[in-house]
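Researcher: I'd like a structural prediction for the single chain below. Treat it as a standalone chain; there are no partners to consider.
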Amino acid sequence: MRFRLTPVDTTFYDLFAKSASNLVDGARLLAELLADDSDNTAIARQMKDAEHRCDEATHEIIRRVNSTFVTPFDREDIYRLAAGLDDVMDYMEAAVDFVSVYELDILPEGMEEQVDVLQRAAELTAAAMPRLRTMRHLEEYWIEINRLENLGDQVYRQMVAKLFSGSYDALTVIKLKDVVEQLELAVDAFENVANTVEQIAVKDS
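Model: Treating it as a single chain, here is the predicted structure.
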């Protein structure tokens, strides 16, 4: 662990935690989307609000980096972590938006498994962000995220196979594939966040 004589702005840790908490909200909204009586328009509006909150946290992190003399870890890593968290939200918001604008009333079988992976990844990420203060007990986080990403890949491939099984008409396949692809990108983005955290922890050890 490196020692610093100059005080470090610890606000970054709070901002990363805030950004990650927005991802928990986003994953929860995705789960609500799966309900038979879901109001897709209302959920899309709430997801857009969550995406705006995540953007605000990202912008605040960038402003702090640009105005702070001593940062808790490398500036490049702060940028990468902030952007990675923002990417997750962008992909989740895009998936919900596709469901709304395409007016999809029926979502493909297996999507609940994708959403479950995202919810678990969001909760793990939110729990990990406060541990950046000490850089301790983080290894189990990135290992589990990697496992979830592998599971997400498997679920995604199974869903694409079902979409092209002949159960849906061609136009519906295109629409549903847009949704599941955005969710797959969100899972990948969670792994990118975990990889960034691992690199930060290795540098700081």
